[in-house]
Specification:
By secondary structure, this protein is of the alpha+beta class. It folds into three domains: 120 residues, no CATH class; 140 residues, Jelly Rolls (Sandwich), CATH 2.60.120; 77 residues, Phage tail protein beta-alpha-beta fold. The chain has nine helices and 19 strands. Strands 1, 2, 3, 4, 5, 6, 7, 8, 9, 10, 11, 12, 13 and 14 form a 14-stranded mixed beta sheet that branches. A three-stranded mixed beta sheet has the order 16-19-18, with helices on one face. A hairpin with a 4-residue loop joins strand 5 and strand 6. The longest helix has 21 residues. It is elongated. Keywords: Membrane, Transmembrane. GO terms for molecular function: sigma factor antagonist activity. This is Transmembrane sensor.
Length: 355
C-alpha cells in the first residue's frame, strides 16, 4: 500500500496554449523566413510551447472533421461563456487572425476563442465525449463489452454502467453492480471508474469493482487488482495523502461514505469469482448471503427470525443452482426449510431454526 498526491500530468499553461494557437493559425497561412525564425525561437523558449503546439496539430484534425452542425453546436454552447469573458477581460482580435480564415467554420470558432481572451471554445470541445454508451444487465445476465479504445469490460448480473470516452480521459460510472475491467494502456488518457463514493484511476491493468449499495453488509465499494496497479480515492476529491495505490493481488473496501479500510491480500481465485458462476461467502450473515443470491434471480426464500438471519455461512456456491444451496444449507447451519402452507407460484419458503 502506498499513498500519493499526484499532480495532473502534461499540464500546459493557458498562455502557452493561446500563443500556440496564434502560431498554428499563422503557419496554416504560410510563414515568411523571418516568421519561421521567430517560430523556432518561440518553441525553444520553453518546453511547454512545443507541447502546446503539438496538441493543436493533433487535435486540429479532429476539430477540422467536425460537421457544420457540430461547429454550430459548439458556438451555441459557448455564447454565454464568451460574452461573460469578453465583458470581464476584453481583448481585440490580432491582425493576423482576421481575414483569410473567415470562410472556415472551425477556424472562426477557434479565432473566437482567442478574441474572447480564453480557451473556452477549445475547452468545451475537448470536454465533449467522442463515445458514450449506457449498458445494463438484467437479473441473471452477464455480458462482455469491447470499448472503442480497446478496453474490455465484463458485467455481472444486475449491473449498470455509463461509459464516456473523451479525447484526454476515459470514464466509466458504476452506480450499481460489479464488473471486471481490462483497460487498454494509454498514458495520455487515464481511465477512471466512479463507483459510489470512490474514484479508481488506472492507465492499463485488469481489476474488479463492486458497488452494491442495496446489499446489507455490502453498502460500500470493493476494488481488487488482478494485473497492474490502480489508484483509489474518494470521488469528491481526496484529502492530502489519502490516495491508496493497489498492486496485483491486493484489494480494498470502503464503507458507504467512502472511508477506506485496510489493504488486504486476495488470491486470484477470489477476484470476481462470479465470472466462473461462483459466489463465495466467508463468515457471511445468512441474510446477506440470500441477498447476494437474489442478485442472480428470484430465490423464493426468506428468513424472518433475526437469530437465523445472523447465522454465519462459509462456502462457495453456483448462483444458477439454488437447489444445491437449499439442499446443503441444513447440513452446514442449524436450520430447516419450512415449506409454505399453500404452495403456488408466489409461494415463499422460510428458513427457520432447526428443532
Amino acid at each position: 500500500m502506498s499513498t500519493t498526491d499526484t499532480p495532473t500530468p502534461g499540464a500546459v499553461p493557458a498562455d502557452a496554449e493561446r500563443e500556440a494557437l496564434g502560431w498554428f493559425v499563422r503557419a496554416r497561412g504560410g510563414l515568411s523566413v523571418q516568421e519561421q525564425g521567430e517560430f523556432v525561437a518561440w518553441q525553444a523558449q520553453d518546453p511547454t510551447h512545443a507541447q502546446a503546439y503539438a496538441r493543436w496539430q493533433a487535435d486540429w484534425q479532429q476539430l477540422d472533421a467536425l460537421p457544420e452542425e457540430g461547429v454550430a453546436q459548439l458556438r451555441a454552447h459557448l455564447a454565454q461563456d464568451l460574452a461573460r469573458e469578453r465583458a470581464t477581460a476584453p481583448r481585440p482580435v490580432r491582425g493576423w487572425l482576421a481575414g483569410s480564415w473567415a470562410g472556415s467554420a472551425t477556424m472562426v470558432a477557434s479565432v473566437a476563442v482567442v478574441a474572447a481572451g480564453g480557451l473556452l471554445a477549445w475547452q468545451h470541445w475537448q470536454q465533449q465525449p467522442v463515445f458514450e454508451k449506457h449498458i445494463a444487465t438484467r437479473t441473471g445476465e452477464q455480458v462482455d463489452v469491447q470499448l472503442p479504445d480497446g478496453s474490455h469490460l465484463r458485467l455481472d448480473t444486475a449491473t449498470a454502467i455509463d461509459v464516456a470516452l473523451f479525447r484526454q480521459r476515459r470514464e466509466v460510472r458504476l452506480p450499481e453492480g460489479q464488473a471486471v475491467f481490462r483497460v487498454q494502456g494509454d498514458a495520455a488518457r487515464p481511465f477512471d471508474v466512479l463507483a459510489g463514493p470512490l474514484r479508481i484511476t488506472v492507465v492499463g491493468t485488469r481489476f474488479s469493482v463492486r458497488n452494491t449499495p442495496g446489499i446489507p453488509g455490502e453498502e460500500g465499494v470493493r476494488v481488487a487488482v488482478e494485473e497492474g496497479r490502480v489508484r483509489v480515492a474518494r470521488a469528491d476529491g481526496p484529502a492530502p495523502g489519502a490516495v491508496v495505490e493497489l498492486s496485483a493481488g491486493q484489494q480494498i473496501a470502503s464503507d458507504a461514505t467512502g472511508q477506506l479500510g485496510p489493504v488486504a491480500a486476495v488470491p486470484a481465485s477470489g477476484i470476481a469469482p462470479w465470472r466462473e458462476s461462483r459466489v463465495s461467502f466467508d463468515n457471511t450473515p445468512l441474510a446477506q448471503a440470500l441477498a447476494e443470491f437474489g442478485r442472480y434471480g428470484p430465490t423464493r426464500l426468506t428468513v424472518r427470525d433475526p437469530a437465523v438471519a445472523a447465522l454465519r455461512l462459509t462456502g462457495t456456491f453456483d448462483p444458477r443452482r439454488l437447489d444445491n444451496f437449499v439442499r446443503v444449507l441444513p447440513r452446514v447451519l442449524p436450520v430447516r426449510m419450512q415449506e409454505p402452507a399453500e404452495p403456488g407460484a408466489a409461494a415463499v419458503t422460510e428458513i427457520v431454526a432447526a428443532p
